[in-house]
Amino acid sequence: MSDQAPVPNDKQERSGDRIFLVVVDETEEMGVALRFACRRARNTGGRVALLYVIEPADFQHWQAVGDLMREEARSEGEQLLQKLAAQVNELVGNIPVLFVREGKVTDELFKLLDEEPSISILVLGANTGTRGPGPLVTALTGKMVGKLNVPLTIVPGNLDDEAVDSIS
Q1: Going by CATH, does the domain composed of 17-167 fall within 3.40.50.620?
Q2: What are the structural domain ranges in the chain?
Q3: What is the mean pLDDT of residues 82-107?
Q4: Contacts 24+ apart (CB under 8 A), 111-120
């Protein structure tokens, strides 16, 4: 019999540090997904991470105008992330991990998931209106679902705070 405690493997060490990733936009369903991720993080001792992707502007005629548009989009994204980070801090009790990327949302999401093995779960909100669940949910539940290397949780965007709190 050994006097040394067993060394936990990588999976055991990470189980308490569950990171819930939310892709940030300005939709109502993202707010519902964020609340769900915050509640799950708080209830499991995990953390929340926020990803904001600046999509490339289709304006290529004048480089200076394109650069200005990109800087404005980055500034707006950073302001939104700061607002949401304060909300996460209030709900979870810690500051979220923030990621800002430039490119196509799906491409940047998959790159981030490959680069950050600490991310445990992807949480998205689904629009419940007639226009469908949203482009990212549609893409990730269709042909791209096999590319995911983490579980995907889809939260209906029409849930109120009470409903989210009761299921998380």
Answers
A1: yes
A2: 17-167
A3: 96
A4: 112/21, 112/51, 113/21, 113/148, 113/149, 113/150, 114/149, 116/19, 116/49, 118/14, 118/17, 118/19, 119/19, 119/21, 119/49, 119/150, 120/14, 120/18, 120/19, 120/20, 120/46, 120/150, 120/151
Contacts with 79 (C-beta within 8 Å, 6 or more apart), sequence order? none
Torsion sign over Cα 99, 103, 105, 109: negative
Contact 51, 91 (CB under 8 A): no
Q: Whole-prediction pTM value?
A: 0.84
% the chain with pLDDT above 70: 85
- Token look-up 């939310």 returns 22
> The tokens of 151 are what?
């579980």
